[in-house]
Fold this protein.
Amino acid sequence: MLDIKSGDISLIGYGISNRALCNYFLKKGISLTVRCPQECELPEGVKGIFGNEYLNVTEKTVFRSPGVRPNLINGECEIYTEIGYALEKAPSFKIGVTGSDGKTTTSTLIYRMLMRGGKNAFLCGNVGSALIGIADKIGKGDYVVAELSSFQLFDCAPFLDVAAVTNITENHLDWHKDISEYISAKKNIVKNAKCAVLNYDDPVVRNFECKNKVYFSLRDCTDKLNSGFDFVHVVNGQVCYNDVHLFPVSRICLRGDFNVQNVLCAVGCVYKITGKAPVWRVAGEFCGVDNRMQIIDTVNGVTFVNSAIDSTPSRTVKTLGAFPLNRVCCILGGYDKNLSYGCLEGVLSQVKSVVLCGENKDKISACVKRQAIKVNTLGEAVLAAYKSAAHGDFVILSPASASFDMFKNYKEKANCFKELVRGLKNGEN
C-alpha cells in the first residue's frame, strides 16, 4: 500500500478525479500541493503552483490527472492516478471495464445487474463518481464497477477480480503516440486480474493474456465449450452461458448488435455472482445511458436522437446502423483526435443526408466522398438536418469526434442539442 506523507504530495491537474482526491487527503489531515497550467481556485490550506513550471515537481509522490502523460512530468517522483490508488485501497470485489466503445453502457449494465441481484454496488471511474470520493463508504462485501480509460490504464495495472474488455478500435491518437501504445495501455487492465471477460469476435481482444477467461460472442461457440474457457454466446436466438439458456436476444431493450455484445459482456462479468434472474431482468429493462442513442423528441414526425457521446468513427458507424439508414439525417463533426474517418464511407453512403459541423468537417468530408451540408454552428446543423428530413425520418447527432472544439465536453454539446430541439418544437426557429 502506498505510504502517503503530509506535505510530500502533489496533484497535477485539478479535474474531477484530482479534486476528489484533494478533498479526501484534506479530510485525512494531509497537506498537499496542486499544480496546474492555469490558475484555479483551491481549498483553504492547499498550495498552488501554476504556469509554465507546473510539471517540474519537487514532491516525492505525484498524482497525475488522466489527461497528463507521465513522461511529461519532471522530477524524481513516483507517479500514480486517483483511480489506481483508490482501487488499491478498496476492500471490495472489483470489476474493471475498458474498451474503445461500449464502456459506459457495459459498466452501467454490470452495476444494475449486481444491484438487481441484491448486491451493494458502486459505479465509478469515467462514469459515476470518482472512486476515492466514496472510498470510505465501501465495505468488504461490496462491489465496485470501474470504467477505465486508456489514459488511466497507461501506467496502471490494477488488481481486479474481473477485468472486461469490450473491443479495440482507433481512438485517442492525439494523445497516444500510435495504436500500439493505445493497445498496450488497454492490456494493462488484464495484467493483474483474476479473470478476464473478453470479446471473442475482436481478434485483438481475443488474444489478451489472462489465466482465467470468459469469452463473449455474437456467434454460436458451442464447439468451443471444451476449450477450458467459459462462453457467453448466442445460440439460435438465445443468450447462453455455456450451455445454459438465459433469455432470448429479442428481450434486450438496447438497439444494435454492438449493444447485444455489451449485454453479453456484462453477463460474463456477473452471471456467476447473481444467477439468471437479475441479468434477464436488466437486459429487458435497461434501454440506454444518457447521450447514447437517446431519443429526445419528435417534431412534425421527425425523431431527434442524441448520441453526443459517440466520439469515434466506429461508434458512429454502430449508432447509425441501428436505424433504417434511408431514413437517417445525421450530424457529425467536432474536435479531431487524429483518427481516420474512412470507415464512415459505407454507412454515410446509405443515409438520407449528412450535415458536418466542427473543426474537422473538411477532413470528414474528404474521407466519406459524398455530398454533405457544411455549417458553422450546432444550431445551423440541427436546422439543416431537420429541413432535409421528412415525416418518419431520424435526425441523429453522432459526432464521430470529441466535442472540445466548441464545447467543454460531450455533455455540454448534448444539452445544447436538446435545447435546440426544444426550440424547434416551440417554433423558435
